[in-house]
Amino acid sequence: AYLELHVLSGLELAIDSFSVNFFRVMDVKEALAGWNVLQAMLRHISAKLSRPLLPLGCACGASILYLIELSLRPDVEGGFSFILQNLWCLPPNCFFLYTLMRAAAVTEKA
User: What does the pLDDT look like over 64-77, one tens digit per residue?
Assistant: First the structure.
């Protein structure tokens, strides 16, 4: 997810750079050619990034389901010790959701 996050940040910067260059130069013909290249790059990279994000999302979902299952079992002791023992699933899930948020931001800009 860390690598995907950096790739998504780079894509967002590429879209911003295209927009700035378009408003600076104001050449529609050049901008159309540049947009076609950028759009092809976005499609190619999004196709490559969609494969590793699916297992990552499944793993994060499974960790949340595991946490819910543990919290509903009557033989598991609850309280502060339960929270500390199962706090490991919070950072990966937050990181995955942040990565999805950045991917949505790239999609919104394009």
Answer: 888 888 777 777 67
What 16-21 contacts at long range (C-beta under 8 Å, 24+ apart), as own/partner pairs, is 16/109
* Per-residue pLDDT, 66: 83
Quickly tell me which residue has 């494969």 as its tokens: 51
Q: Given a cut of 80, is residue 85 above it in pLDDT?
A: no
User: Tokens 């130069």 label which residue?
Assistant: 25
pTM above 0.85, yes or no: no
* CA 88, chain centre distance (Å): 20
- Cβ count within 10 A of residue 7: 18
Tokens 């394009």 belong to 110
Considering only CA atoms, give the Rg of the chain.
Answer: 20
What is the torsional sign of CA 18, 21, 26, 28? Answer: negative
**Terminal-residue alpha carbon distance, the chain:** 21
Distance CA 63, CA 88 (A): 9
Residue 20 to residue 24: CA distance in whole angstroms: 6
